[in-house]
Amino acid sequence: MSTFFARTSLARQLFVLQAAVLASLVIVGAAVAYYDAKSDAEDAARQRVLDLAHATALSSDVVTGLREHDGAGRLQPYAESVRIVSQVDFVVVMTTEGIRYTHPNPARVGGRFIGTFAPAVAGRPVTETYTGTLGPSVRAVVPVFDGGRVTGLVAVGVTTRRIADDLGSQLRMVVVICVAALLIAGAGVGMISRRLHRMTLGLGPAEITGMYEHHDAVLHAMREGLMVFDRAGRLTVVNDEARRLLGLHGDVNGRTAADLGVGGSLGDLLRAGATAHDEIHLTEESVLVVNQSQASRRGRRLGTVTTLRDHTELQALSGELNSVRGFAESLRAQAHESANRLHTVITMVELGRTDDALAFATEELATTQQLADELQSAVGEPVLVALLLGKVAEASERGVELSVSGDTAMAQLPIPARDLVTLLGNLVDNAIEAAIAAPPPRRVTVRLRQDDSGLLIRVADSGAGLAPEQVDNAFARGWSTKLDDRPHGRGLGLALVRQVLHRHGGVIDVTNDHGAVFVVRFPAHSTVAHGVG
């Protein structure tokens, strides 16, 4: 039996169990109905013989026959006619001593009645099941009154065999009804079983349990966030990583995408249920790569599956890589420029103009070294110094004059260096792009100032600036004034800036002064995000 349940599908097991339960219920019900019908039949027979005995005892033929002691001439024919018409097994008229005047078997006439009749002699009817000359029977004995006294007795009985025969016909009907009920119930259980077989794909309990355990283990082990919405848009599956990335708490199963509280472009995507392939979306804390597709089976739509990959660290590393690439480009440009200057110096020496060559070389070296010395003394963070030097060289190569304000001073970083590089690098990159798009002179100015109130970062460019209605949209993911020519589109830089601001409680103001001016402020000690202002 255990092998059967281990190897059989859940639907078939349920069919067998339900069929067994139904069969047991029908058999028990039939048995109860039989015994109840048997009891009812015996009660009905007892009442019937009692009523017939009373009616016979009141008959004038019986009263007269007993008065005249005319058993053979009057009582025997009358008793037999009553017995035959009433379909009972015996009608016995007897004396108060129990001597029979009548009996279905004439040979028994004159014999003594077998059974209890003393209560009837006392004037009370009595019923019992007793074994007499005809076998076990249900009988009633009643007194016959004549002039107020008991002059004889009437006994009427039905054998239990006759009761059983009458009950047999009823039992056959019960059996037919039970068989029909079993067939109908079996057909219903079969239909349920087939439907369950389709729903469970023919899997057994052990397989379903194993699949659930593996499914649960995979969900918890996945480093990607996973969300599954059903056809009605309700969340049915969400793993731990998705909860972490979206900040979901408590029981969220059964909620719609609109009820999850996910904002921004990612919230719009989840609510729409549209297809997405490797789309970049930003939350307040993370940079997510989102894939979303419709799930279907055999042409029937099952719902929507969404996966979330955390690219926050990767995006930060990508920013650092871009900075390193910028540094490399700057070094290449500087190496090219240094080669030109070196050739100039060598040529001047060959021409005998040694003093002019020395003055030219010293001037160029002093200019480059002066900017590096100024930044190192004003900014204590080497990574930030390297970033600014690289951006100066990159801007110069692209025809933009990038200058760092003379009052720049920053002793220590109020936020992690990686986040500051992300913020400042993106602001400067956007400023350079804006300056290049505008007519000369093309300038970008950077100012960093730290005091007791916190850190101020100001990046200004000579570009076209931002219209007031563009300011709010500028920090949204995907917004850009340039054509989309990148793998994931433009418009990510300022969205990353906004994310850094939210993470560290910074605010930003955007104004126009012969170009766009971005002013960022970080409080000295900030733990609550104030958003973008």
Automatic annotation (TrEMBL):
<keyword id="KW-0418">Kinase</keyword>
<dbReference type="InterPro" id="IPR003594">
    <property type="entry name" value="HATPase_dom"/>
</dbReference>
<keyword id="KW-0597">Phosphoprotein</keyword>
<dbReference type="InterPro" id="IPR000014">
    <property type="entry name" value="PAS"/>
</dbReference>
<keyword id="KW-1003">Cell membrane</keyword>
<dbReference type="GO" id="GO:0000155">
    <property type="term" value="F:phosphorelay sensor kinase activity"/>
</dbReference>
<keyword id="KW-0067">ATP-binding</keyword>
<dbReference type="InterPro" id="IPR004358">
    <property type="entry name" value="Sig_transdc_His_kin-like_C"/>
</dbReference>
<keyword id="KW-0547">Nucleotide-binding</keyword>
<keyword id="KW-1133">Transmembrane helix</keyword>
<dbReference type="InterPro" id="IPR036890">
    <property type="entry name" value="HATPase_C_sf"/>
</dbReference>
<dbReference type="Pfam" id="PF02518">
    <property type="entry name" value="HATPase_c"/>
</dbReference>
<dbReference type="GO" id="GO:0005524">
    <property type="term" value="F:ATP binding"/>
</dbReference>
<keyword id="KW-0812">Transmembrane</keyword>
<keyword id="KW-0472">Membrane</keyword>
<dbReference type="InterPro" id="IPR035965">
    <property type="entry name" value="PAS-like_dom_sf"/>
</dbReference>
<dbReference type="InterPro" id="IPR029151">
    <property type="entry name" value="Sensor-like_sf"/>
</dbReference>
<dbReference type="GO" id="GO:0005886">
    <property type="term" value="C:plasma membrane"/>
</dbReference>
<dbReference type="InterPro" id="IPR033463">
    <property type="entry name" value="sCache_3"/>
</dbReference>
<dbReference type="Pfam" id="PF17203">
    <property type="entry name" value="sCache_3_2"/>
</dbReference>
<dbReference type="InterPro" id="IPR005467">
    <property type="entry name" value="His_kinase_dom"/>
</dbReference>
<keyword id="KW-0902">Two-component regulatory system</keyword>
<feature type="domain" description="Histidine kinase">
    <location>
        <begin position="333"/>
        <end position="526"/>
    </location>
</feature>
<protein>
    <recommendedName>
        <fullName>histidine kinase</fullName>
        <ecNumber>2.7.13.3</ecNumber>
    </recommendedName>
</protein>
<keyword id="KW-0808">Transferase</keyword>
<feature type="transmembrane region" description="Helical">
    <location>
        <begin position="171"/>
        <end position="192"/>
    </location>
</feature>
